[in-house]
Amino acid sequence: MKRWISPLLVLLALSACQTPKASGPGRTEAMVSQGNAHRVTEIMGPQSQQAQGEIRLLVVPVRFPDATPQLSLRQIEAKAVTRLNQYVEAQSYGRAWIKAHLTGWVSLPDSIEAYRVSSSNFKVDRNRVRKLIEDAMTGLERDVDFSAYQHMLIVPGVFTQSDKGYGMVCYCANPGMLTGVRRDPGYVALRSRGGKEFSGGVFVGAENAHIGMFAHDFFHALGGVYHNQRLVP
What we know:
Layout: H1 7-12, E1 21-22, E2 28-29, E3 38-41, E4 45-48, E5 53-63, H2 73-91, E6 96-102, E7 106-107, H3 126-140, E8 151-156, E9 170-174, E10 190-191, E11 197-198, E12 201-205, H4 211-223, E13 225-226, E14 229-230
């Protein structure tokens, strides 16, 4: 069960600052800054300007060859685009809003078992998280300019409960599951098979995730990292 955090407080207390870091033998992951313009006050602590104004979000519904989505693209759009934008705009008193682009279904190359993750934050296989995102990017690389977006939402088209379906209903991958959330979390560079990169915030929410889940993990992505910790805990 995730703790509830006031969305308005989150939007007022966001910041990000990362440094380069190696990940695994023979591979270096580029750690990138998500905007280091911030100020620190004695009352509010670190505050960021990046969660104000227009936030460009790419929404990518994905489907597995052995699982059938229960929601249509229109239903996903209503929740992950329209309602999420209304939520952010209302909770920020109009200071932030989402400009989202919803792609069509992206067909993943492997069965759901190749992507399924644990419902426990500390047992999630980061390689499967990376595979999900990079396979989705590969399916879009000919049609999408990833540099036009600050954040990405991946929506697995399968009804999901704890350790069923996709395994975890909703989580933040970047910063988060791709590096782990206990030590030195950060934004990493993700690459499609053709070499296109995306280093912005990424969160993943199954088709049946409710709006509070989408918002919670979106705020992780917006909050970023400050002094080697995610600002939104």
